[in-house]
Amino acid sequence: MLVIKNATIYTMDDATGVVQADLRIDGGKIAEIGRDLSTDGAQVIDAAGKVVTPGFVDAHSHVGGIGPGMAEEDLNELTTPLTPELDAYYGINPDDKQFKNTIAQGITTSCLAPGSGNVVCGWVMAYKSAGKDRVVRRPVAMKGAMGINPKGVYSQKNQSPMTRMAIANTMRTYLRNVKDYMKKKADAGDDAAKMPPYDLGLEHGIPVIEKKIPLKVHSYMHDMMTVLEIAKEFDILITLDHAQGCSDYLEELTDPHVHGIIFGPTSAQLFPGEGGKLDPECCKLFDDRGVPIAVMTDAPVTVVNMLVYEMGEAVRHGMDPVRALALVTSNAAKIVGVEDRVGSLAVGKDADVLIWTKLPSEATDAVLERVLIDGETVFEKET
What integer pLDDT is reported at residue 70 of this predicted model? Predict the structure, then answer.
């Protein structure tokens, strides 16, 4: 048992908010939040003058599956435009040293996705940076991609899809095939002889059609409108990942088919075509409209402090610091679909906890002093 005493706690839980209190951890879970909690038989951390936040949730990452400098790409199967049968779980090295880097950033849970070279890329999972049972949920989404990435891969092979029109058609065809497959299964009922041949790629698409998981689509600028059109056509949920230029579509993206926007990384270079606009002001604009929005690292492509930097950029563009903290905690967890366990500090949730010198979304000199995952210290700042 562990008790963190005398902290300023940003619970990111709507029922609690910001409190001056103690936090008790037992069995890897948050057991109690309140004043003057008993410390009998407990390890005690005195956090007087410190800030406690939930562990960060990185809503879009490739850590453990893509090596620095793209030296290894176990999350990129660039052989055919449709690979929905794949599962990020089998491309992750749990001992990859990159996970230590994520911990030092305060990232306790990452949404690990296949790379974006294919139009439909495979299942996505939520995974902890350390611990005994690291899979938080699997799957949390089906990864898809539009625009420059599949165009770049398949134009080099001189095969479809080399154009935006072919990419859109490829995605539509896959979703249509999933619906047809589901209908054949339903029509077959208990008659095994009438069942269609088992197809793992189509099976993986069923939770998307049933709105149990979103289609998580790598998209920029005008491609986002194509993705939204497809979402409406098939009545599915989508997340728009990267989403550069999304501020051009403030009204359109309030559509209920948009499960969330995952913006970033803001360190990304601009490039011709769909990569011509970088608009971190979108975080406040969409948050003000009630559209779920988070930020991401896209690790290991980006710098190690990306989430803190992106929160700061949002604040610099007028966002309230606590709402900016939600971009990497409660908002991110809700979009990823793991808010029942992480993203906020509440009784019964996982004890993924960060201890800071100051609020990191507000103070540029905030220092991360300690990281706990499931109640265990996995990082402590050297003094």
Answer: 54
